[in-house]
Amino acid sequence: YKVVTTKSLIDMKANGEKISMLTAYDYTMAKIVDSAGVDVILVGDSASNVMAGHETTLPITLDQMIYHASCVVRGAKRALVVVDLPFGTYQSDSKKALNSAIRVMKESGAHALKLEGGSEIKDGIKKILGAGIPVMGHLGLTPQSIYKFGTYTVRAKEDAEAEKLIEDAKMLERIGCFGIVLEKIPAKLAERVAKEVNIPIIGIGAGGGVDGQVLVLHDMVGMNNEFSPKFLRRYLNLYDDMSKAIGQYVDDVKTQDFPNSSEQY
Ligand code: KIV
Ligand code: NA
């Protein structure tokens, strides 16, 4: 796939090719992620935590998401760029949802949106889809509802919540979503959903029986050393490496080792 579209992702699922997805929030990171071959870049509202230092994803605004998304779009040449609609910009009514969706698409140049929730936000999703904007669902642990859950532990371990999740996934497929993120649910349940719908299921903490995986970039490169859930694989320890490098720079400045004669004009 020279350029990844929502259609490419559905083809990948049909052909059994797993989909790779990572977050990015700025131009430079998006450029690295894109040229390394990641299929989907998510401008996640995890920017609220990772970029802004908030405890939850709730405070980030639509304008801030648009800023992050526009930076990522400039760095991405191949990947599909999906943007989270933030808390409070789509839940109240479907007209508001559509207005928020149109703003992100127009002002950032992104390719698709992601919204958290199932039946509760069905009308909003339908309205956005009706405007020709591709939508990805997000079920399971939906962090914008953290104060409803009260904890970031695994969701849908009980039958009632699992049944609703399956129903919601089927509904999202039926109304025309191009994919669904399943966050932190039992692997068996995620695998069942991936089998029962034809649109791609992208998991985070949802096991290997799904159609693709997503992680938060800053977590997987180890820039954040305070967050170690079981599902996270760390490929680098950038927190440690950068701390060492920066400490060395401080030393070099203090001891006047930097700059040396070849590092000046
Ligand atoms: O905001 C985010 O980073 C996400 C992923 C964890 C799926 O929604
Ligand atoms: Na998110």
TrEMBL record:
Compartments where located: Cytoplasm
Reactions this protein catalyses: (6R)-5,10-methylene-5,6,7,8-tetrahydrofolate + 3-methyl-2-oxobutanoate + H2O = 2-dehydropantoate + (6S)-5,6,7,8-tetrahydrofolate
Binding, 3-methyl-2-oxobutanoate: 45-46, 84, 114
Function noted in UniProt: Catalyzes the reversible reaction in which hydroxymethyl group from 5,10-methylenetetrahydrofolate is transferred onto alpha-ketoisovalerate to form ketopantoate.
Species this protein is from: Flavobacterium agricola
A molecular function GO annotation: 3-methyl-2-oxobutanoate hydroxymethyltransferase activity
Pathway in which this enzyme or protein is active: Cofactor biosynthesis; (R)-pantothenate biosynthesis; (R)-pantoate from 3-methyl-2-oxobutanoate: step 1/2
Name the record gives this protein: 3-methyl-2-oxobutanoate hydroxymethyltransferase
